[in-house]
Structure formats: C-alpha cells, structure tokens
Amino acid sequence: MSERPSTPPRATRSAGKLPPNPLTPEQIRRMEEARLKAKAAAQAAQSAKPTAPPPVAGTKRAFSSINSSNTPANSRNAATASPAKHDQNGFTQPPSNDLIQPAKNFGRSEYIEYDFSKMMDTKGGFLSTTDDPHNRAMRSGRGREEEKPENMTLAEWERERIRRKLRENRLGPYEPGISILDAVDGKYEEDDALLAAAEADGVEFKGKYGDGKRDVKGKCRECNSLEIDHKWQDVFFISVCGACKDKLPDKYSLLTKTEAREDYLLTDPELKDPDLLPHLERPNPHKTNWNNMQLFLRLQVEHYAFSAAKWGSPEALDVEYEKRQKIAKERKEKKFRTKLNDLKKRTRVEAYKRQRLGDGGGEFGDRIRGFGDRHEHEWGRSVVDGETGMTRKRCEECGMEVEELEF
Ligand SMILES: [Zn+2]
Ligand SMILES: [Zn+2]
Hints:
Blueprint: H1 25-48, H2 63-66, E1 119-121, E2 126-128, H3 154-169, H4 180-183, H5 188-200, H6 230-236, H7 242-247, H8 249-252, E3 254-256, H9 257-263, H10 268-272, E4 279-282, E5 293-297, H11 298-305, H12 314-357, E6 383-384, E7 391-394, E8 401-404
Antiparallel strand pairs: 1-2, 3-5, 4-5, 6-7, 7-8
The structure holds zinc ion (2 copies).
C-alpha cells in the first residue's frame, strides 16, 4: 500500500442506480478516525454534563434534562442541530431546510395578460370569472359555450358567433332549400280526404288549431308560401311565413310567460311542458345575466286555454277571470276590515285609559283631559281690529291671543 492517496475512479453517471464506487482504503481509514473522534467527543460531553437529579414534582426541570441534543452551547449554527444526513459514501451533506424556500420570482413573466372578453364589469371593477368562479353576479345568462375559446382571435370569434346565430335561426346559408317537390299538392291528399269526410258530415273543417287552416309542414298555413320561418317550424311545429306573421298578430304574436300566466290563467307546470306549449327562448332584453325570456305563440296558447282541457271557451275564461278578481278584491277588503277593527279596538282601549285618568264620567263628545295631554286651544269668536284690519282671536281656556290677516 502506497502512502500517496490515489485518485478514485471516475463516477459514471448513467442511470444513477449503479452500485457506488468502492471506497478507497484511505477513505475508510479517515472515516474510521472521524467516527472514533466523534464518539470520544460525545462521551466527553456526556461525562462533563452533571447528571440530572431525579425529577421532583413541582420543581422546575433543568434545561439540559429536556434538551436531548448534544449541541454545544456555543453553537451559532442552528442547521447543525438537526441530525446530519449521510450519503451513501458516508459524507455529511450540506444542511438543507425544506421549510424555507426562496420567494417565487414574479419578475420572470414580463406582464400579466387579461382577456377582457372574459371579464365582467361588476361595478366594483373588472373581474375575471377564472378569478372568482362562484360569483353569481358574474354569471351571464348565456351558457358556457358562448365563451370565446382560447385559440381564437376576437375577429374569428365574432364570425363564429354570427355563424352560430344564423344556424340557430336557420337563416342565410342554413336556410333549407326549397324544392319543387314541396309544391306538389300530394301532401294535401290526406287532409283533403278528411275535409271531404267532414263536409259530408256537415261539420266545418277546424284544423289543428281550430282556425280552419291546414297545417302542412314546409308550407305557410295562411298563404301556402314555401318561404316559411324554419325556426318556428323547429320550435312551434308550425309553418308560417314572415309576411303572414306580421299580417296576423292575433294569431302569430309572441306572448311572454307572464302574459300567458296572467291573461290566460295558465299555470307554471302547463307553461313548463314543452309538449303542451312549446316556447322560444330569447336572451332577456333587460339584463343579460337574467334568465332567458320564454316566448309562447299566441295561437297555441289560446287554442289550449280555450280548449275543453282548460277553460273551454273565451267566455269561460272571462268568467274565471272575473271570479278571481272578485276573490282578490274580497281578500283585500277583508284585510282592510281586519285592520280597521284592530284600529277601533286600540282606540277604544285608549279612550278607556283616558277616561280613567280624567275627572270621571263625561258625555260622548266631551273632551277627555288626561295627565300629560297637550293643550289644544279652543279659539273663540274672532274680532276684527278696526285700526289694523287684523282679526284677533282668543283661546277660551288659556287666554292666548293671536292676530291674523284675513282675506
Ligand atoms: Zn304566409
Ligand atoms: Zn289655549
């Protein structure tokens, strides 16, 4: 064995799982020396410490008895107090403190980007829905799909939205083509047969909605035009053209949910049933983050409301309406009467109290004077003063005089 320490072979850093380099004899010798030295130092420190007396109840323990570490009292490096870790070669690693981490460097990103299309003016400043996903004030009535996807520019998104709107309303490139085949009256054959049968029975043809119009899909039920509103066809299952819609508001105007409920006395479950009464949804014109407006077709609402399933006839609806108005009025009157009676009762109690405080007795109409009552002047006849032209009147009870100018 030579005295000169030899250079250990190079560590191969391939997988990191290779067996550690074998220790050189020199390393082993130094480790052993260090171990023995440390052991001796620890034993010396242990023997130098006064042996702690057995703890006596009620007395303060010595600090050394609770401080188990053998850190020298003059140590200024707290990191050495933690048990030193040894790597596979037995060397002590530099102390690390996992709890204390350097602050993240905010300066690394140059600026924070805000996407204003996703932000909402909450009147307390612009807030992003990603910052505050549970804030109801920022939830718009429009659904999630109305948000601009990340990878789109604003111009692209605008075009996409127009495209979606056209598709939804089946307009522009999404309007179904008109085929010559649709114009063939073959579709009427079934209806014609029914019509003939009905006329033979002496019954007037009523049609689906009782207005004598024939409903053929794809054809305006009023003027037989093929240029129908396809949105309405999809939602209301009714074929009507734009011109006829404008011409006949009695049939084809749209009613809000409130109108349908209050004017036709329909209930919420009835209005919620899309099979019974389909409705068109529109964003609320008053506030975009309110619920969508629900619009019902007047023809369908009236057909249902006047049908035997509901009120039977417009007259019956009027009767019901009157009845409800009467009930509401009676309820209001009853409430007023209860209030009035309550007031009367309270007044009677008050009068009784006053009577007990007063001189006793007293006829109806007499003023009842009680303790702590405010004095009300009893003005006598007013006298005109000849010099000034003022009228003067005097309180009968307290003698106070006032002058007034009468006109
Ligand atoms: Zn028409
Ligand atoms: Zn007076």
